[in-house]
Amino acid sequence: MRKWTRTQRILIATITVLLSLTVFLNILRIASPLDGINAAGYDVFTMLRYSLIERPVTSIQEFVGDFTQLWKVKQENEKLRTQLELLAIYQAKLAEAYRQIEALKQIAGLELAMNDYELINGTVIYRPIEAFDNSLSINIGKNDGVKVDDAVISSKGLIGKVEEVFDDRSVVRLLTTESGNNKVTVKIQLSPSQTAEAILERYDVEHEAFEVRLVTTGYAITKGMSVISSGLGGVFPSGLLVGYVKEVVELDNAVGMNIYVSPAADFKSFEYVAVVSRR
Questions:
Q1: What average pLDDT does the segment 218-246 reach?
Q2: Over pLDDT 90: what percentage of the chain?
Q3: Are 202 and 210 in contact (CB under 8 A)?
Q4: Which domain holds residue 161?
Q5: What is the rounded CA–CA span in Å between residue 110 and residue 106?
Q6: CA distance 170 to 125
Q7: Residue 252 sits in a domain of what CATH number?
Q8: Would you say residue 165 lies in a domain?
Q9: Would 192 be classed as within a structural domain?
Q10: Can you say whether residue 224 is alpha, beta or left, with left for phi > 0 and alpha for psi between -120 and 50 degrees?
Q11: Quick one: which of 204, 226, 221 has its CA closest to 157?
Q12: Which of 45, 84, 120, 279 could connect to 275 by a Cys-Cys bridge, CB 3.0–4.6 Å?
């Protein structure tokens, strides 16, 4: 009988074990009752992996992406808001520049129309809050030719007269002041060729208008008529626009009437003025 060497015996044993294991696994795969359980277990594992790992990770990624996008949009909106605010500021400055240019043009036009008087242009430098409707200071004075009682106008019309004069500035008493005697002789333009002499008595705060009294009664005064300085008082030159008739109130005694005149000048807002000085 032939004897196997040690190496041959090991090789034959290895082949035998591999063949036996292969046959056993094939039989187990065909006949095993655990196949359905293994498939069900795999499905459960897949569902848990999706629910507990993949889906939360995906949701977090989507949230981070959306949040990043929203943050970018927010920053862009803030940038646009800042640009719009700057645009509004620039537009306001441009409008103010146009307003100032227009006011200076109107004052220059008045200067051409008043040959007998010299217009000394100035700027408001101080207007105290506690006396806002009473007085203001301008940056022209004695050195510029300004004198006490000179009329002062804005680009819209008469606003007051010079009350005090210093070397380089002056104090102007406004027509809207409620203190002191501030009467002005005026005339109401009834037609291009006819006027009615009157006196501006005071400024009525309640009506926001000047109270004017006719010197001679019998005239038909209607709303919208122009009121100008008459020059008879010796202070204001003739022809300076004061305002327009706002309301006419008949008195109870039927003897006279109260005439309320809206100021032509905007007493709440002006920066440039001109002093009307006789040449």
A1: 87
A2: 29
A3: yes
A4: 116-174
A5: 6
A6: 10
A7: 2.40.10.350
A8: yes
A9: yes
A10: left
A11: 226
A12: 120
> CA–CA separation, 140 vs 125, rounded Å?
10
**Is 28 domain-assigned?**
no
- Identify whether 233 is part of a domain: yes
Measured in residues, the chain has a length of 279
Q: Produce one character per residue of 34-56: b if its CB has 16 or more CB atoms within 10 Å, e if not.
A: eeeeeeeeeeeeeeeeeeeeeee
Pair 162, 147: CB distance under 8 Å? yes
Q: What is the pLDDT of residue 17?
A: 64
Angle at 154 between CA 149 and CA 157, to 5 degrees: 85
Same domain, 109 and 148: no
Interval 130-176: pLDDT, tens: 889 999 999 999 999 999 999 999 888 899 999 999 999 999 999 99
Counting beta carbons within 10 angstroms of the beta carbon of residue 217, is it exposed (0 to 12), middle (13 to 18) or buried (19 or more)?
exposed
